[in-house]
Amino acid sequence: MSTHRPPTLAPSGQPSWRHRRLDPDHALGLRLTLAAAAAFLVLVPFALLTLLVLGVWAPLHRLDTAVTDALHGYAQDHPAWVVLMRVWTEVFAPMPLRAVALLLVVWLLRRGARRLALWAATTMIVGGLAGPLLKLLVGRDRPELLDPVARAAGYSFPSGHALNATLAAGVLLVVLVPYAGRRATRTALWVAAVLLTVVTGLSRVALGVHFTSDVVAGWLLGVAVVAATTAAFTSWRADTGLRPVGLAADGAADPKVAGRTAP
């Protein structure tokens, strides 16, 4: 039989920082800690990958070149594959994904979920600004191929397509999963999000306009931005004295959104 341990008190008589952040009974603090830790843990491999790219680390360069050459050879022998990848990369390019996110923000505003709408917009904007800035700072050239099957302008690292696909997938999951009552619907949303992220990144390498490390960096940065903005908005909610619920619950708990009375 387990006994409930009283919270560790700080000298002021309030629960300690560790207790507020890690105690499962304090859901807000625990969620904030996990989100901040996730952002940090994802940024570590992203920073390491960036340093390896800047230092032109030979093993990474050989791996990138080998994958690019192999996929380029396959693309040259399979025109239908190139058409499919071109269609996918255009349909799920950054601008169409931002347009979908904008429509989602407008829908949330009309439903009264203003805080969730602001989080979604901030996530897309922060990620959208971070990508081009890092491209300029790193200044990595795109793959140089004989007889390329596609072309793209600008620098290569990180992949903007991979970054924005990850941001859009994260926003769609946070916003839509709470409305999916059936497990099959939730599973379908997760599968769609994974396909959007993975295939969009794959299309950039398959078309020879990005190295594999560019795409991996875009994925990592996207996950880090989603985790960081989630932590920031969760903390902001606590600072403004609102109920300790997550972002998705904030939208779903709104009577205009969920069709029920908020507690």
UniProtKB/TrEMBL annotation:
The keyword Membrane applies. CDD domains: PAP2_like_2 (cd03392). It holds the Pfam family PAP2. Signal peptide: none annotated. It comes from the Bacteria. Residues 116-230 form the Phosphatidic acid phosphatase type 2/haloperoxidase domain. The chain crosses the membrane at residues 28-58, 91-109, 116-138, 162-181, 188-211, 217-236. The keyword DNA repair does not apply. PANTHER family: AT30094P, SPHINGOSINE-1-PHOSPHATE PHOSPHOHYDROLASE. This is Undecaprenyl-diphosphatase. It comes from Micromonospora violae. The lineage of its organism: Bacteria, Bacillati, Actinomycetota, Actinomycetes, Micromonosporales.
